[in-house]
Amino acid sequence: MQNLINLFRMPIDKDHARKTLEKGILYKDIQEFLTEGDKRELHKLDLTKPLKCWGSLPGSSNWRNWNLLKEDDEILCYRSSEYVCLAIVGPKIHNKELAKYLWGERDEATWELTYFFKNIIFFDIPIEKINVHFGFKSGPVMGFNIISRKISEPFIVKFGSLSRFIKSGEFKEQITKGQLEQKIIESPYEAQYYLVQLGKILGYKPYVPSTDSGREAFGVRLKTLVKTTKEDLSKYIGPAILDTISNIDVIWLNQGSRPTFCYEVVYKTGMKEAFARLGVAEQAFGGVKNRIVGDENMEFTYDKTRRLYFPYTKAIEYRDFTQLLEAHTSAVEYQRKVIEEFLGN
């Protein structure tokens, strides 16, 4: 009996869960924050795939539960009156700088008690449907906590584990793929690719600068996807600002070749330059919509840059890569649905 797994429960928020439980993070993007000991631990996982992880603030209760966590333990994740996934524990590391990079800070504290997962099973199960097997009331899960041995042991003896219980029992139909297969943008050119494709689906004429047109994303050169040229832009743009506007990463033009949306992709650096170019576009075209696109971690840099250097450019908004991917997926799916259901084969 002493080798039984531990069972835990914890609440999760939507944004952090989407980032590090559903989408995952790439090992190459976090290497700089890892100690040699951390790297040895994480090499127990398949580092060619996005890594899924979570973290807890370093309070006394969380420290106790984090120390109890061991490989193959199971964590039930709760949100909005439902259990939404089951996470199978892998290696754990204590790393404050990594936590800041992944989740930021709250009142100068961060979620530094970090644990990675071997697997995550996504589902949508009302909390009372599982709680009844533990004798719990159906109130919300308040904090990261372990299910006591007195309660968990009879459950494990009967079902083997939570994962077996969910996969083989009455909840099989509730298991979903979640976001496990969601695409990840790994270069600025991939972001440009999705912006170009989305613009075309929505009926715009996309433009990319000549400096980027030879770049590849998913084995395709960007120049093969666009027909709009710098000459087309010159119909609405004066010579004094043409060079600046023509270097914006992606522009959507209406059928009259007038810029309607301007996008700057900020991958790791270049936030001030993006604001400067879009600021020129904002002054040049009434009604143009300007967007900076980057990953979730760059939104803080966007807010800081706007506040310090460009306080009057309120019309320049931020969109993250996940939002771009979701918009592209929705547009593709809508296009397919129209073709299949209305236009026919």
Describe this protein with a few key phrases.
345 residues; alpha+beta; ph1033 like fold; 2 domains; seven-stranded mixed β-sheet; five-stranded mixed β-sheet; 15 helices; 14 strands; 22% strand
Please summarize the sheet with the most strands.
Answer: 7 strands, mixed
CATH top level class name of the largest domain: Alpha Beta
Radius of gyration: 24 Å
Got a strand count? Answer: 14
CATH fold-level name of the largest domain = ph1033 like fold
Number of domains: 2
H/E topology pattern: EHHHEHEEHEHEHHEHEHEEHHEEHEHEH
The total count of helices amounts to: 15
Low-confidence runs (pLDDT<50, min 5 residues)?
none
Average residue-wise pLDDT: 88
Distance between the termini: 61 Å
Beta content: 15-25%
Portion of residues in helices?
A: 40-55%
- Which architecture of the largest domain does the CATH hierarchy give at level 2? Roll
Note down, in words, how this protein is organized.
By secondary structure, the protein is α+β, with helices and mostly antiparallel strands. It has two domains: 7-176, Roll (ph1033 like fold), CATH 3.10.590; 188-341, no CATH class. Helices cover 40% and strands 22% of the residues. It has 15 helices and 14 strands. It has helices at 14-23, 27-30, 36-42, 60-68, 96-103, 127-131, 149-159, 162-168, 188-201, 210-213, 230-233, 239-245, 271-284, 299-309, 321-343, and strands at 7-11, 53-56, 74-79, 82-94, 113-126, 145-146, 175-176, 205-207, 216-217, 220-221, 250-253, 259-265, 289-294, 316-320. Strands 1, 2, 3, 4, 5, 6 and 7 form a seven-stranded mixed beta sheet that branches. A five-stranded mixed beta sheet has the order 8-11-12-13-14. A two-stranded antiparallel sheet has the order 9-10. α9 packs parallel to α15 (321-343). The mean pLDDT is 88.
